[in-house]
Amino acid sequence: MSPLVITLLIVGGIALLIAIAYVNHMVENTKLEKARLRTELNDRIRRCANISESLPGQLMTPQLKLMLSRLQMHFTQRLVQLQPGNADSKAQLEALRQLIAQGDAIPVQNPPLQIISEVKAKEVRFQLENLHGQITRCAQDGILPANEAKHWVNEIRHMLVQLHIELFGNLGHQALQQNQPGQARLAFERGAQYLRKQADNVRYQKPLKKFEEQLARANAMVVDMGKPAVDDTSELTEGLKSLEGNEDWKKNNIYD
Length: 256
Hints:
Layout: H1 3-54, H2 62-82, H3 87-100, H4 118-140, H5 146-177, H6 181-196, H7 205-226, H8 235-244, H9 247-255
Helix pairs in contact: 1-2, 1-4, 2-3, 4-5, 5-6, 6-7
Protein name: DNA repair protein
Organism: Pseudomonas aestuarii
């Protein structure tokens, strides 16, 4: 065998090894990319489903439920394309199609949540922030049209205002029931201040007026509580009156 043939065989072997290594690298990268995409799609489906199922009933509407279901269907379709043999994903996709086919008649079964503490309000605020994040990302990815995404961002702002109206109103009523008009006044004042800061003043005139009326009543109650009762004659008061009429006491105190 000539040196040239040997050289060609060595070069060919090296090239073959490089090609095999490259193909293995590409296959491994494809597997990793599919696994990453599968994890991402499952996460986005889970987030949309969690918002759709757990957002308080007073904030969930058929239109919002429908939009979230459409997003879930989009991600589920991509998941089915990625793993065609997954029976669970196919069943979920079919269920979502039937749900979306109902349009605005889509059932909303979210139970309402009474917002009676800062903790509960923060939990709902976190859900709204999550919803905002999903909509913003879907708009960036071209899944949601820009005008539709803008509409839902405005609706989220409104839901956040509704959340604060309910929180401050409930805190105020709770304080009144516990005979704490000072705390009630603080809650109603916070509610009024929050609404005055909103850009859309016209939309929130009615709840603002209600907060101002409640604040005025709480103020009046605080003032009334600070006034001494007319028939409140304590022993100290009677004692001071008797001393005022005792001229000998005054003289003793002056000359002693």
